Amino acid sequence: MAPAAPLSAVPATPSAVSVVGIGADGWAGLSGAARAVLLEAEVLIGGERQLGLLPPECAGRRVSWPSPLRPAVRGLLAEHGGSRTAVLASGDPMFYGIGRALTEELGAGALRVLPHPSSVSYACARLGWPVEDTETVTLVGRPAARLAAALHEGRRLLVLSADAATPAAVAALLREHGFGPSRMRVLEQLGGTAEDCSDGTADTWEHPPGDPLNVIAVECRSTPETLRLGAVPGLPDEAYEHDGQLTKRHVRAATLGVLAPAPGELLWDIGGGSGSIAAEWMRTHPSCRAVTVEGDPVRALRIARNADRLGVPGLRVVTGRAPDALSGLPVPDAVFIGGGLTAPGLLEACWDALPAGGRLVANTVTLESEARLAEWYRRHGGDLVRLAVAHAVPVGGFTGWRQAMPVTQWSVRKPAPEPPAAPPASVPSDVSQASVPSASVPSAAPPASVPSDASSASEPPDASSASEPSHAPGDDR
Asked: Which of 139, 305, 427, 436 is the most buried if burial means most Cβ atoms within 10 Å?
C-alpha cells in the first residue's frame, strides 16, 4: 500500500456542509481535497466506525449519528448551523447513502460532496462483473423479502448487507424461493487491509457471521421445479395464496396494461382480494408504490403475505371499506377497482381523488356493476371492453373449450379541467338598440329525447348496493 500523504491541509471550497465518502481503507484512501475538508472541519458527524478511521489531527468536535438516523438529520444539522461541518459517509454518499437525506434537507446547493468508490464498484472489480449489468438490492434498513423481486435465472445481484447476519438471511430466502443452487460470495471490508471473501451456495451455506461491513454477490440459479416469475405483469395464478378472489392471469395482464404504471407512481387498489394487481404494479419498478384497500381482515393478512413472497413488502394494506377507508390516503396516480362498484359514493370518491391525467380502471363480472360502468362510460368516455378467456380442457377423449366468466372493464383518463369561459364582449354604448336591424332568429332545437334507461331520474335504484360485499360473489379478483 502506498504511504499516506502528509496531513497538511489543502484549501477547500467553502460550503455550508461537506459530505465526505470514506472506505474501509480509511484515511489512506482519501484524496487530498477530502482530507483538507476533514482537517478544517469544526464539526465532524458520522457513524462511530467512520469517525474511528480519522487521525487525531482532525480536531473538530466528533458527533455520532443517533439511531434511528433519518429523523435526527434536521435537528442535528440545525444544532451545528454556522460551523464548518463535515459529514462522513460510507463509500459514495449519493448511492444509498446519507447524501440523499442531506440533499432533501438542505438542497444540493448547500452541499459539497466528495465521493469515494462505492462497495458496488469494489465488488464488481473483484468479481469481474460489469457494473451496468449488475443489479443492486439494498437490505440496509429494509426487509430481506424485497430481494425476491430480483430473483431471475442467470441474474447477477449485489446485495448491500444490513449487518453480519444478512448473508444467512439471504441464503434462507434463496432456498425458500427455489434458488438454493445459487452461488453466494460474501465480500467483507472491501478496499481495506482486512478484505476477505466467503464462497458457497445458498443450499449449503454454513459460514458463521463475519464482518458486518459486507456485500453479498449472488449468481441466481433455480431448481427445475421452481415456478417461473417473469418481469412483466401476468404472473401465474399459482404464485398467489388466495381463496378464489383473484384477478386471473390473463385479465390481470390486460388490466396492468391499461393502468400503465410508470416509475414513482402510486396506485390505489380498491377491493384488494389477493393483492395481485397492487403487487404486480409494484414489481414493474422498484420506485412504484401501491395502497390496497380490503374490507376482510383475513384477506388483508393474505395480501401482506403475497406481497412478501413476491418481493414487494412495501405494499401498504388498509383494512376497511371503501369509500370511507380512502380518507387520508396520498393522492393516487391511478386507481383500480376490483370489487364493490355499487357501493354508494365509491366511483365518485375515486374520481374526485384522481388528479388530471390520472387513470381509473374498473373490472366486474356482475350485471349490477356493469350497469354502473356503462353509466360512467356515457358520462366520461374512455374505453369499455369485455374480456373473455377460454381454456382447453378434456371432453371425454377429445378436447374442448371451457369459458371463464367474461369480465367487463372500463378504463378512462381524467381530463384536465376546462378553462373558464371568456366574458362576453361588451357592446359600445353609442350603438342604439333601435339601429340594429331586426331579423328572424330561429328557435333552438329541442334536446334529443333521452331513452328512459339512460335517465338518472327514471333508473331504478340498485337494490344490491346496500348489501354487496367488497368482493361480490363471482367477481374475478
From this structure: 139
